[in-house]
Design a protein that fits this description.
The chain is of the alpha+beta class. The chain has 9 helices and 20 strands. The strands form 6 sheets. The chain has a 6-stranded mixed sheet. Strands 10-19-12-17 form a 4-stranded antiparallel sheet. The protein is globular. The protein starts with a strand and ends with a helix.
């Protein structure tokens, strides 16, 4: 609820019932007006362009009606109501955190020792609360397991269907992870693999990866996940100059492993938003191309920071290990969480299927479920 409101031409100042205060510019309020002439009632999309708003927009009246803000704009002589709760949720008149390398609210970084987030196949498919909690774990921790699933091929597609769609690549809608003769990728061998993000040579990278176990009687082959954001936090703390180098210069990645495919990208290993928030990690020794965008006098320091980040990623204290059983799968946020595999023997069998999906579908499904829950509570 709003307690008071005042206006001075181009700015409206409000005080909420809890005593907090906020200011809003007239141009911002007009652009975000909630009336049906500005926003489509069915989907909320904006019906006006920035050019439709008068350049001399101002507010000549700001009143409180039933705890909400009633604003009249000039020269349009247009009156719009802004609910107090909506204003509180969209306040921008506040101190902005500027710490470079911070993680977004709602993300929890981790090391070895945390219990792997997990959901049960039947519960997640049948119970909205279980599905919501599983999706929320992926959003917060960057990975989660799913247990007690079927062992039929292509079951992983049903995992992706819980929240979105498979992202098809040159590997097809999904790919087989088992030993091959003359493999096109080292993933198709029994070799151990350093923790890595997948497909760093794509732009954009697949933002989610699902690995689903169908058979696993081979010795070894445990899966390991590592929080790349936590590794980057350690580097920022211990070597801020090195952190700045990995975030400030693009690395290069390349894959030319099969006929007709030549994938290349140029992105930093540690990706930050313009305001310094950590938004992505790209780390894959197998797919690194020569670094040619780092100045000569910074190259040795860059490599030292690269080695240090790799040491953190390889640190046993950083990884969460588990061996997938048939019918089990796990999903990782491929922009954040690295996954590794221990080597495995030639005896027995190990058959996983993998696919990619997009994080926006998962986050959209989660947000829609949360909104529906709030609306039901009201």
């Amino acid at each position: 609820m709003l307690r008071s409101a005042t206006q001075t031409g181009s700015v409206v100042s409000v005080e909420f019932s809890d005593g907090s205060q906020a200011r809003f510019h007239a141009i911002w309020l007009r652009d975000n007006a909630l009336d049906p002439e500005t926003r489509a009632p069915g989907n909320g999309q904006r019906l006006i362009t920035i050019g439709d708003i008068p350049t001399d927009i101002s507010v000549n009246a700001a009143d409180i009606v039933n705890g909400d803000l009633l604003v009249t704009f000039q020269p349009e002589n247009k009156t719009v109501t802004f609910p107090s709760g909506w204003l509180a949720d969209h306040t921008y008149d506040r101190a902005v955190e500027q710490e470079t390398g911070r993680v977004a609210p709602g993300i929890t970084t981790w090391e070895r020792g945390i219990a792997a987030p997990s959901g049960d196949w039947a519960e997640v498919h049948a119970t909205p609360a279980a599905k919501r909690n599983w999706l929320a774990d992926v959003a917060e921790y960057g990975f989660a397991k799913l247990t007690n699933g079927p062992t039929e091929p292509e079951s992983l597609l049903k995992v992706a269907a819980l929240f979105g769609y498979v992202r098809e690549t040159n590997y097809g809608p999904y790919f087989e992870v088992r030993t091959e003769v003359n493999p096109t990728n080292l993933a198709y061998t029994g070799l151990g693999l350093q923790a890595h993000t997948d497909n760093p040579y794509r732009d954009p990278v697949p933002t989610l990866q699902i690995l689903y176990c169908l058979e696993n009687s081979a010795e070894g082959g445990e899966s390991i996940v590592v929080d790349g954001f936590r590794a980057a936090e350690r580097l920022r703390s211990d070597n801020p100059e090195g952190f700045a180098l990995l975030a400030g210069y693009p690395a290069r990645f390349e894959y030319v492993g099969s006929d007709g495919v030549c994938l290349r990208s140029r992105r930093p290993m540690i990706e930050l938003s313009p305001d310094g928030e950590m938004v992505g990690i790209r780390f894959n020794n197998r797919s690194s191309a020569p670094f040619v965008d780092v100045p000569f006098d910074q190259m040795e320091a860059y490599y030292a920071a690269y080695r240090q980040l790799g040491d953190y990623i390889d640190d046993p204290a950083m990884g969460v290990a588990f061996k997938l059983e048939p019918g089990e799968s796990f999903i990782v946020d491929n922009t954040r969480v690295l996954h590794a595999r221990l080597g495995y023997s030639g005896s027995g069998t190990r058959w996983l299927q993998g696919c990619y999906a997009d994080k926006d579908g998962l986050l959209s499904t989660l947000a829609a479920m949360d909104m529906a829950k709030l609306e039901a509570a009201e």
